[in-house]
Design brief:
- The chain has a 22-stranded antiparallel β-barrel.
- The chain is built from 6 helices and 47 strands.
- The chain has one domain: Maltoporin, Chain A.
- A hairpin with a 5-residue loop joins strand 37 and strand 38.
- The protein is globular.
- Helix 4 crosses helix 5.
- By secondary structure, it is mainly beta.
Length: about 750
């Protein structure tokens, strides 16, 4: 496999470093980052309750990663983020988060500046103040009702300072990245503007030996502009527009090397000997090479996000907020299902056309404030959202060398909700005690149309369905601030995920109902100093009853429907228990050393799951699957990190630090939207070691900073997958970044 092509990139990097270093020590202009004074436990601000609060005072289990942490570990996708977040597991390829779980529960919703957004790719990781991962049901205050949790991307807002940043990064696999940000106070404290741009490209790490192509590399750019308009002390309007284009073809799977039910159809089509020979050849080639059967693999994703937040202070303690969001996403993918000499599955083959974008709008009205001598903090609001596709066109696929078939599906969604939540300070009775209660009622409308075509493009089936779903959600809890440093909380939150419709099954079987999770959470948050050692601890334990689970099943609907073949569909076939503990601990024993750890243990299992097991090409029998592994959940997960500052170096050199992070995950069983619970389809346990180095205030130049990042330092080779393919993890990657701030 091709490894490092760094000579030309290193020359460019060295030239840039020399040129900028010659600028010399900083002048009188303000730097974006102040001179380092060693590690410290800085205050972490989060928006877990739709207002800015100190993480240690929020009765919600949250993992927050700052912009510096994201850059230090080269975290640019949700897959990268998962190594540092207890309880979170995304699927499948890097940069393509088609499905993700929080504590084993699917339905993790992304938010960009408070409004719902698709979290695929790298577009929402650029120029952020932090990324926040909220665990458990968040359906009371946040827009889209969900059981799993929420991921919040908080972009950096314009400031009242003339400042900016530019950087260049180089690395192996011919990686090169350019980035720039400029912040301008056009009218002092009244009209502030921030613009930014990022371009990233690299070669792929999966090699198609048939066509000499490489997959899994980066090829994207991001542009952003934001502005704050503040004409007076009572009104403020914040606007941000983010546009990203990604042309990097995702890494395909390689053919599964073990025995799986999904290979049965391939064996029937090509013969057992041919499939066995293909698997043996792939095993000899290793993880990063394979033979493809798709000469024109293609992928692109274009995403536009617009956010406008207007706030008006009715009084000093009460304000009204209007939040409007618009998202437009256009994607097209022509990908091979699994590398191998046999055509197991090729998507979007000849004749397929790209459909138009899917547009989503959101409108939210809020009243926030504090009343009763500031004892009651409250948020009351309404949420309205809808999405629909444009210019729908069919996609044709070929599976196991069979006939080309096509389909086109139309999904339209509308969501309406009313909600209220408040926290009352009970310190008049018990000092430090407060109680929180919230309630939300959500109405969902779904419309679904689908059309199937034969190889000649002739319509073979058309059906449509529409329906309405409604479900409440709530939260209730108490928080006790034992002292200035330690808080405990107990919360009972019930969330819900909307129902919907299945594709490709009869109308009578297409509808599935909402699912619910009733979650009880006990947490302890502390930040204190003992004998000169600073520490921060966040520990939580949870227990949830997961009911009406939207699980997948298989069934034949008779010889007159799609030739009697066994079809996959979703139904409320299961119930489960979700329980476990999580912890995140930071210790700073000296000014030159910082230690971090995170830990997760979970015991998640079905209490009911009746699954239709195939016994022939057209027949199934019901089987008790309640003992089957719970998909999308890593039972054990832990990580350790350290940062060492070279305090012995002269101040004229600057601040130099080295970091190391080790993360380990136990085996996780995978189940995607087209798979059934096959115990053979799992990702093995694995550990990853990431290394980094950071040099700030280079040679007394407070504007200059350099970083070195090595991900998967031990070059662990492993794969995971469900169905025909195994998704291969990224190999060791090295990158260097030089940034100049002013």
């Amino acid at each position: 496999m091709k490894r490092m092509k760094l000579n030309s990139s290193l020359a460019l990097y060295g030239s840039l470093a020399s040129a900028i270093t010659l600028i010399g020590p900083a002048g009188t202009v303000h730097a974006q980052t102040a001179p380092s004074a060693g590690p410290a436990l800085e205050e972490v601000i989060v928006n877990a309750r739709r207002t800015e609060e100190n993480l240690q005072r929020v009765p919600v289990t949250v993992t927050a990663l700052s912009a510096a942490a994201l850059e230090k570990q080269d975290i640019r996708t949700m897959q990268d983020l998962a190594n540092y977040v207890p309880g979170y597991d995304p699927c499948c390829s890097r940069g393509g988060t088609s499905l993700s779980w929080m504590r084993g529960v699917p339905g993790v919703v992304g938010y960009f500046s408070e409004l719902p957004a698709n979290i695929d790719g790298s577009g929402l990781f650029f120029d952020v103040s932090n990324i926040q991962v909220l665990k458990g049901p968040q359906g009371t205050l946040f827009g889209i009702a969900t059981n799993g949790g929420a991921v919040l991307s908080q972009p950096v807002k314009p400031t009242n300072r003339l400042e900016g940043m530019t950087s260049v990064s180089v690395g192996d696999f011919d990686r090169i990245a350019y980035e720039g940000v400029l912040n301008v106070p056009v009218v002092d404290d009244k009209f502030l503007v921030r613009v930014g741009f990022q371009r990233v490209s690299s070669d792929g790490y999966i090699h198609d030996l048939t066509y000499g192509k490489e997959y899994g590399g980066d090829d994207y750019w991001i542009g952003r502009v934001s502005a704050i308009f503040r004409p007076n002390d009572r009104f403020e309007n914040y606007f941000v527009a983010n546009y990203s284009v990604d042309n990097g073809v995702p890494a395909p799977s390689i053919i599964a090397l073990d025995a799986r039910p999904e290979l049965g159809a391939a064996i029937a089509a090509f013969g057992a000997a041919a499939v066995a020979a293909d698997k043996a050849e792939q095993q000899a080639l290793g993880w990063y090479h394979g033979y493809g059967t798709l000469p024109d693999a293609k992928y692109y994703r274009k995403a536009l996000n617009l956010v406008d937040i207007a706030e008006y202070n009715l009084t000093d303690n009460v304000k009204v907020r209007n939040l409007f969001g618009f998202e437009s996403i256009e994607t097209f993918s022509r990908l091979q299902q699994a590398l191998g000499r046999l055509p197991y599955g090729n998507g979007a083959t000849l004749g397929s056309e790209a459909s138009g974008p899917v547009d989503t709008w959101t409108e939210e009205l809020q009243l926030q404030g504090q009343i009763f001598d500031n004892r009651l903090s409250f948020t009351v609001g309404s949420f309205n959202s809808g999405s629909s596709p444009h210019e729908l066109k069919p996609t044709y696929n070929i599976v196991n060398g069979g006939p080309r078939t096509g389909s086109a599906a139309y999904n339209k969604r509308k969501t309406y909700a009313l909600y209220a939540q408040g926290t009352y300070d009970l310190s008049q009775f018990i000092d430090g005690l407060s109680a929180t209660a919230g309630y939300r009622y959500t109405w969902d409308e779904r419309t679904y149309h689908e059309t199937f075509f034969d190889s000649a493009g002739v319509q073979t089936l058309y059906q449509e369905n529409e329906g309405k779903f409604a479900k409440p959600s709530y939260t209730a809890g108490v928080q006790y601030q034992i002292n200035q440093d330690v808080m405990v909380f107990l919360t009972d939150s019930k969330g819900t995920s909307s129902g919907g419709f299945n594709s490709g099954v009869p109308i009578a079987a297409s509808r599935f109902e909402p699912e619910s999770l009733d979650n009880i959470e006990l947490g302890v948050k502390g930040q204190f100093e003992i004998g000169g050692m600073r520490a921060r601890t966040n520990i939580s334990a949870y227990y949830g009853k997961y009911t009406d689970v939207q699980a997948y099943n298989l069934q034949s609907f008779g010889p007159d429907f799609r030739n009697g073949q066994i079809l996959l569909y979703q139904t409320n076939a299961a119930s489960a228990i979700i329980k476990g503990i999580e912890s995140e601990i930071t210790l700073v024993p000296t000014d030159w050393l910082e230690l971090t750890s995170n830990f997760q243990y979970g015991d998640t299992y079905y209490t009911k799951y009746i699954f239709n097991q195939p016994i022939s090409a057209t027949a199934t029998i019901p089987v008790d699957y309640s003992t089957a592994p719970f998909p999308g959940f890593s039972k054990n997960k832990y990580g350790f990190g350290t940062v060492v500052h070279f305090a012995f170096l002269p101040q004229s050199i600057g601040d130099v630090s080295l970091s190391a992070n080790w993360s380990w995950k136990s085996k996780i069983y995978a189940a995607g939207p087209t798979n059934h619970p096959d115990p053979k389809g799992y990702r093995p346990a694995f550990g990853l070691l990431d290394l980094g180095a950071r040099w700030t205030d280079i040679m007394q130049n407070t504007h200059l900073e350099g970083t070195l990042t090595v991900t998967n330092y031990l070059n662990e080779e492993f794969g995971a997958g469900h169905g025909l393919g195994i998704q291969v993890h990224t190999p060791r990657m090295i990158s260097m970044r030089l940034a100049y701030t002013f």
